[in-house]
Amino acid sequence: MTDKMLDGKVAIVTGASYGIGRAVAIAMAKAGADVYCGDIEPNDENDELFAELGIFQRPCDVTDESDVVGLVEQAVSPSGNLDILVNNAGVGLIKQIPDVSECEWDHVMGINLKGAFLCCKHAIPYMQPSGGSIINLASNAGILPRAHDPVYSTSKGALVAFTKSLALCHSKDRIRVNTVCPGPVENTRMMNRDLESTGDYDTAYQATLAASPMAKAEGRMIDVDEVAAAVLYLAGDAAKFVTGTDIAIDGGKSLGVPPQKQV
What we know:
The chain is α/β, with parallel strands linked by helices and 263 residues long. 44% of the residues lie in helices and 14% in strands. Strand 2, helix 2 and strand 3 form a beta-alpha-beta unit. It is globular and about 50 Å long.
């Protein structure tokens, strides 16, 4: 793969103001793509760097179809085509089902699942003439459910199923659809909020490391750039025949019960 492996490609990245989405947008721009970002919470701190890299930004609520249409139309207006869609916008919820309100359920499903649906719905017609790549950011919670966040796990499990269905439906159009399923990723809004909500950040941090065998062994969480590298691979021609696949970047968290130290 060359430094400009996405030269001439047009890409959309949602949830791109912070964390994984921001890292993906930067990596794709550096790889030569024309990148169009949407986020419901724009981050002014990105303005200078994004301008240098030629990354376009606009507010976008992925649950609002008119916002999604606006983002897609801006991306395709110069050339008439779209090559890459990264559905990264997402939200978490740590609650047990009896405590979850209908509004909270709709909020999580709306962003994590409906948002991907709307973006795919409006992006696919622009990919069909020549093919393309859709990458959905799921989670290790989409591979195996987690006890502490059943609504989030359900939304990501559904996103994995949605991905596989789309991959099957649109292989004839040369549109590849895959998921990247991260485990504990450091320095993201979702992770920081989850850790801070416990009231004991350091203890929660260590417990999160302990739940992922390789994170525990390395003494750190996953870096956003490591997730972005997997997205970049799926977006490029090196993954031309990769579709319907889940790439777990979770340090073995979704494999099962890790081996315990023998006493």
